[in-house]
């Protein structure tokens, strides 16, 4: 049970990372813009999380953690702010590649 949160992070990012190199998707080409954006937003939300954890507004069950901390946050929580955005943006990019037709017939601003 100690590795539950870490495994959630790992398996969330595993498939998106592996398929980032798929010849049709080529998501790795977006990394130069993606990683700086994830770092900036990650820092903001990690600071927010640390603050709320110190105020005891929320916390983390040690039964599901490795016990490694970065400041007041478990390492799994810090990784969360990079694994989840990566996976979500990868999924969005896949939808853009696989479903090019505008099924909603949305008029875009030009």
Mean pLDDT: 93
User: What does the overall shape look like?
Assistant: elongated
* Biggest β-sheet: strands ordered side by side in the sheet: 1-2
Strand content: under 5%
Residue runs with pLDDT of under 50 for 5 or more positions: none
| Helical stretch tally | 3
| CA-based gyration radius | 17 Å
* Biggest sheet features: 2 strands, antiparallel
What is the total tally of β strands?
A: 2
What helical percentage do the residues reach? 55-70%
Head-to-tail CA distance between termini: 52 Å
Series of H and E elements? HHEEH
| Global structural class | mainly alpha
**Whole-number count of domains:** 1
Organism: Mucilaginibacter gotjawali
GO molecular function, one term: intramolecular lyase activity
Protein name: Lycopene cyclase domain-containing protein
Membrane topology: Multi-pass membrane protein
Brief descriptors of the model:
single chain, 110 residues, mainly alpha, 2 strands
Q: How is this structure best summarized?
A:
The chain has three helices and two strands, in the order ααββα.
Task: Walk me through this protein's architecture.
It is a single chain. This protein has 110 residues and is mainly alpha-helical. It has one domain. Helix content is 58%, strand content 4%. It contains three helices and two strands, in the order H-H-E-E-H. Strands 1-2 form a two-stranded antiparallel ribbon. A hairpin with a 2-residue loop joins strand 1 and strand 2 (73-74). Helix 1 runs parallel beside helix 3 (75-98) and helix 2 (31-54) packs antiparallel against helix 3 (75-98). The longest helix has 24 residues, at 31-54. The protein is elongated, with a radius of gyration of 17 Å. The N and C termini lie far apart (52 Å). One of its GO terms (cellular component) is membrane. It holds the Pfam family Lycopene_cyc. Residues 4-95 form the Lycopene cyclase domain. This is Lycopene cyclase domain-containing protein. The chain crosses the membrane at residues 6-22, 34-58, 78-99.
């Amino acid at each position: 049970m100690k590795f539950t949160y870490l495994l959630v992070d790992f398996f969330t990012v595993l498939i998106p990372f592996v398929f980032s190199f798929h010849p049709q998707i080529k998501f790795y080409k977006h990394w130069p813009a993606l990683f700086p954006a994830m770092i900036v937003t990650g820092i903001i939300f990690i600071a927010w999380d640390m603050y709320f954890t110190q105020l005891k507004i929320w916390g983390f069950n040690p039964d599901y953690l490795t016990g490694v901390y970065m400041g007041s946050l478990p390492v799994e929580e810090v990784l969360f702010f990079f694994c989840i955005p990566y996976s979500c943006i990868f999924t969005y990019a896949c939808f853009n590649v696989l479903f090019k037709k505008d099924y909603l017939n949305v008029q875009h601003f030009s």
